[in-house]
Every structure is written in C-alpha cells, then in structure tokens.
Specification:
globular, 60s Ribosomal Protein L30, Chain: A, 6 strands, two-stranded antiparallel ribbon
Length: 135
C-alpha cells in the first residue's frame, strides 16, 4: 500500500484524521473538488450538510475508483464548507461516517477544513478534493 497514515508523538491525536501521510507510490492522482451532485448533475441533499458531505465523499470514491485507486490511497483531503461555524462539526462528521460506511473504509488521511463564503452554486454547502498516490 503506498500510503501510511501516522500520528507522530508530540502532536495531538485527532479521531477524524491522522496528522501525516507518508506516500511511497509512483503515480499522483488529483481529484477535483467534488460537490453534492449525482451522476446526472442534480444536487443531492439540498439544505442538508450531512447528506451533502456524504455525497461529496462518495463522489471522491467514484473518481478514485475510475482511475484504479481508493480511499486507502488518499494522501490528503481538503474540505470547503460554506459559512462554517463549529456547531456544524457533528453534521460534517455524520456525513463522513455515513460515506465511510458505504465505501467500506476509514477515511482518516490528513485533512484541512476551510470555511468559505460560497461555492459554485448556492445549493452546494460543501466541496471535497483529494490527492492520492498509487503504485
């Protein structure tokens, strides 16, 4: 496996992700930010952050599978959330947990979460992009 996830000593252990990923594979995969669109381009979960997070992660999984990769190959995630406030964290985690269950993975690569003013269309509440490394 080309990715090893680590929580080095001296850094806090965070349940949602590991602090560091070590990549030893030879091919980089960059997944564009995925929003809560289904395969036909219709927004899923309008007004529901957890549902949209789940769909974004499922879309990342689909994109990775399309090039022979999986969440096990993800070195880094970046999550953009519209109008972020800390009280939205349970909804974010609920969506991640639901997606991880459907994908059969533990999605814990290093991640950055950014609050943003808006995304591509007003209905989208979250966007997730990924960088993966495969052999």
């Amino acid at each position: 496996m080309p990715i090893t996830l680590v929580n080095p000593g001296g850094l806090p252990e965070i349940d949602a992700y590991r602090q560091v990923s070590v990549a030893t594979g030879s091919k980089l995969v960059f997944v564009a930010g995925q929003v809560a669109w289904d395969a036909d381009g219709a927004t899923v979960g309008e007004g529901d952050l957890a549902a949209q997070v789940e769909r974004c992660y499922l879309n990342v999984g689909t994109a990775l599978a399309g090039v022979g990769a999986s969440f096990d190959d993800v070195a880094k995630l970046t999550v953009y959330v519209v109008d972020w406030t800390p009280d939205k964290m349970p909804l974010l985690m609920d969506g991640i947990t639901r997606a991880a269950t459907k994908l059969g993975v533990t999605a814990t690569p290093p991640a950055s979460m950014l609050g943003v003013a808006a995304l591509d269309v007003p209905e989208h509440l979250v966007e997730v992009e990924a960088t993966a490394v495969v052999d």
